[in-house]
Design a protein that fits this description.
Strand order of the largest sheet: 1-2-3-4-5-7-6
Distance between the termini: 7 Å
Strand content: 15-25%
Number of helices: 8
Structural class: alpha+beta
Shape: globular
Radius of gyration: 16 Å
Helix content: 25-40%
Largest sheet: 7 strands, mixed
Number of strands: 7
Oligomer: single chain
């Protein structure tokens, strides 16, 4: 598919929560991300810095500093580091997507290393690293809309390959919602991604070419 600015966020409307507004998506803005992540739960502790802060850096960076680091990405005049999904005026989901080199923990990960040559071919690889969906809006099409928007965002800004690292719940039946923040194989397959590696049981490396 040839991605154009007209198709970036023109994703099909997914099934909605009964009585709720349709899902819309757009590049993320900091005030909406801050409100969505809130003050409780894992998003408010991680601030989507897990893949950007490897090893000791993660351990020595408190949540308030992680929050400041993510906020700074919206203040430096660069590209938005992710996309948001809305129902009406309420942000109900976030998907992080950036060039893979901005995620050192992914580049050093066991999943990527085990994938071998197939996951290291190509240039301008962008990674879909994380999903956050409000509890009341899960299993209602938000993640699918976010992934479509993330793909469009990446291709519109120079990506040649969009890559994901989802979980296969059929091989990891005990995986709960907290374990599925990188998405599921079913989600990525439905979006047109193909599997390049399943070397780590229950985890896949999947790619979509621009």
């Amino acid at each position: 598919m040839q991605w154009t600015l007209a198709t970036i966020y023109a994703v099909p409307m997914a099934p909605n929560v009964p009585g709720s507004a349709a899902i819309t998506t757009c590049p993320a803005t900091w005030p909406d991300v801050e409100k969505l992540f809130g003050i409780r739960g894992e998003p408010s502790r991680c601030w989507c810095r897990w893949f950007a802060l490897p090893g000791r850096d993660w351990k020595t960076t408190p949540p308030v500093a992680r929050k400041e680091q993510l906020e700074a990405k919206f203040d430096d005049g660069g590209l938005e580091p992710g996309v948001l999904a809305f129902r009406g005026d309420e942000a109900v989901g976030w998907c992080a997507v950036e060039p893979r080199e901005r995620y050192p923990r992914i580049e050093m990960s066991r999943v990527l290393k085990a994938a071998g040559k197939g996951a290291h071919d190509g240039t301008r690889v962008w990674s879909v690293s994380c999903f956050v969906v409000s509890p009341g809006h899960r299993r209602s099409g938000v993640a699918a809309a976010l992934l479509a928007a993330a793909v469009g965002h990446a291709f519109a800004h120079g990506a040649e390959i969009v890559e994901g690292y989802p979980v296969d719940p059929s091989l990891r039946p005990k995986a709960g919602s907290a374990d599925l923040y990188q998405g599921t194989v079913k989600l990525f397959t439905a979006a047109g991604f193909t599997t390049v590696s399943t070397a780590v049981p229950g985890r896949a490396v999947m790619r979509l070419l621009g």
